[in-house]
Amino acid sequence: MRKILHFALNRAVITGLIVILQIGFFMLELFRWGNYYVVIAFVLRLISFGAVISLILRTNNPAVKLAWIVPILIFPLFGGIMYLAFGHVFLPHKLRVGKERTDAHIEKHLRQDQEILDRLEKDDPGIANQSRYLLDYAGTPVWDHTSAVYYPDGLPYWKQMIEDLERAQHFVFLEFFILGEGEMWNAVLNVLERKVKEGVEVRLIYDDVGSVFILPKKYYETIEKKGIKCVAFNRLIPFMSLVLNNRDHRKIVVIDGKVGYTGGINMADEYINYTHPHGDHWKDAGIRIEGEAVWNFTVMFLQMWNLSCYTEEDYNRYYHRFDQKPEADGYVQPYMDTPLDGELVGENVYLNMIGYARKYIYIYTPYLITDNEMYTALKLAAKRGVDVRIVTPGVPDKKMIYWLTQSNYQNLIEAGVKIYQYTPGFIHSKCVLCDGEAATVGTVNFDYRSFYHHFECGVFLYRSEALRALREDMEKTFAVSESITLDWCRKKFMKTNVIGPILKLFSPLL
Prior knowledge:
Elements: H1 2-8, H2 11-30, H3 35-57, H4 62-74, H5 79-86, H6 93-109, H7 114-123, H8 125-137, E1 146-151, H9 154-166, E2 171-176, H10 183-197, E3 201-207, H11 219-224, E4 229-233, H12 240-244, E5 252-255, E6 259-263, E7 281-283, E8 286-291, H13 294-309, E9 331-337, H14 345-356, E10 360-364, E11 368-369, H15 372-383, E12 387-393, H16 399-406, H17 409-414, E13 418-422, E14 425-427, E15 431-434, E16 438-442, E17 446-447, H18 448-453, E18 456-462, H19 466-479, E19 481-484, H20 486-491, H21 493-504
Parallel strand pairs: 2-3, 3-4, 7-14, 10-12, 11-17, 12-13
Antiparallel strand pairs: 1-8, 2-5, 5-6, 6-8, 9-18, 10-15, 13-19, 15-16, 16-18
Helix pairs in contact: 3-4, 3-5, 4-5, 6-13, 7-8, 8-14, 9-10, 14-15, 16-21
């Protein structure tokens, strides 16, 4: 049943069905449906016309507008229906109202220590501008008394998390896009059950659509019976705009307000290489922070909890007051992105870093399907002499997305961007390293879904020891990856120059 549901909700399948319906509807005319055809066709075309007008009037990216207008015009009967289904037209009312209600808590509880920001300004005005952007548009302050550890793989990340969970005394918050039963989650769940019996408060948020194919129905009820407070975010309901958009793509763990985790690593066995669905190795990345900056993650989680449960929370109960401030390890700034405010924080963080780079900019991303601004920024950086390197998967998880990613290689390579495909398997990491001084590690992919539709998060780092580990990991990854050349692109002519460009017409749907 899950496989059937997975197939039925696949965007490519739905788009294909719409194309078939378009052809079938024209065929009906051959059977002389007469007035029925005229009336229905008029209504459907009116919806498509309204969709195009709506797109023209919206203030979002022109490239995104065009990417929608083209398929609507190609399929005038059902194009408008596609837009209503996938176009981020209707935001869930409860989420919108809930965000307005919880924004006040964010402003109240996430306050910037001006002395830290002033010190950062003296160290590097450009980096201070990035931090100020995150403060003003994501509402998240920058901290200095925080340490950070970068994990280049899921297994050591998970093992360290288990150790930290074992030491929990007051509360544990977990938030994941994908939650799957298996060795990884079962080990975590066993610890959580013991902690609940010890009096530790445990809360869990998982995305209902992200986990729908690997968890039993109403799994949150099973978890609650164990004494763990649990929410399935934005539960699966029979309206496409609500089901497929506005997903909680974050991965957050907060332990006692002292230790926090994020990155690309979900709670399923492929993330620790206990299973191998895509190649010999699933490469991912995570970051562990300890210190005052964890408060950002605590507030993020509580805001999402209140959005999901429509409750009011006493945030101060979960603020950890350090008896002795942790040793400073550069500057650490956990941040969040939401589709409810119209600000593309995740993409803009990347754009700012690419524009700031003077020596090099290294990127990990599983998908490379984004707007013209991002491609232009990457090409301009390479043209001005910055060493721009991007690592994408060598083994795909979704074939059409893979072809679409590959269709962007040639244009980037011609501008001087270096592309690598991770030969051992699938790379799911989302990391950007700039000049060895600044980096971000988080959940944000280089694609439309992350930039425009999902709830996301990350950690911005400046002059942290974690940057050295990230640099070493990236150099090792380049060494085991295939360097993509123009000859490679020409040999893959059909995929990169025919199939890929056609798929670009439907990139917002994929």
